[in-house]
């Protein structure tokens, strides 16, 4: 084993890594999508998930303000380019869903729309957020979970620079 110069170098060695589109609602009522790999299950009882977002992220600001968020895992019917675009521009200055042509749908009892082609959707309420350095870690109570077994999940490869499905070997 050799010493790695950066924590992120370790992610390249454990490809593929998860990828999600975190959906939050902006003041104008539209959905903002942000690509987030650093999310995790945290507890089953109570059902809890968490995700880390850079402190200046617009998504983070919306989640801290509205206390509501839906974490989705995109399927391969969403293009890798669209996922990279959602992870390269901020919703602060760009209406990503419209500009990148991502089709949305509604969930029951939820006022945040999500991408049509999602494998899972975890509807959450923010419990608390923790200062983790250059990121805040958002700890969220799960309110509802949805899934579509006919959709194929996408993952992040090569240090988060490529989006593709995982192949069983
Ligand atoms: C594959 C991929 C994974 C990413 N994972 C994260 C992440 O886990 N946390 C984070 O803060 N940003 C992550 N990003 C970057 C954010 O998506 C990016 O900063 C985005 O512009 C934030 O949008 P917002 O300001 O609308 O919230 C990722 C980007 C890509 C392309």
Characterization of the model:
With 169 residues, the protein is α+β, with helices and mostly antiparallel strands. The chain has one domain: Pnp Oxidase, Chain A (Roll), CATH 2.30.110. 15% of the residues lie in helices and 44% in strands. The protein is built from 4 helices and 12 strands, in the order αβββββαβααββββββ. The strands form 3 sheets. Strands 3-2-6-9-10-5-4 form a 7-stranded antiparallel β-sheet. A 3-stranded antiparallel β-sheet has the order 1-11-12, covered by helices on one side. β2 and β3 form a beta hairpin. The longest helix has 9 residues. The chain starts with 6 loop residues before the first helix and ends with a strand. The mean pLDDT is 97.
Give short descriptive properties of this protein.
globular, 169 residues, Flavin_Rdtase-like_dom, 15% helix, alpha+beta, three-stranded antiparallel β-sheet, Flavoredoxin, seven-stranded antiparallel β-sheet
CATH class: Mainly Beta
Rg from Cα = 15 Å
Biggest sheet layout: 7 strands, antiparallel
Q: In whole angstroms, how far apart are the ends? A: 25 Å
Residue windows where pLDDT falls under 50 for at least 5 positions: none
Strand content range = 35-45%
Specify the helix fraction band. Answer: 10-25%
Quaternary structure state of the chains depicted: single chain
**Cross-sheet strand order for the largest sheet:** 3-2-6-9-10-5-4
Return the structural class.
Answer: alpha+beta
Count of all domains: 1
Bound compounds, please? flavin mononucleotide
Shape: globular
Order of helices and strands: HEEEEEHEHHEEEEEE
CATH topology label: Pnp Oxidase, Chain A
Q: Which CATH architecture would you pick? A: Roll
Work out the helix count.
Answer: 4
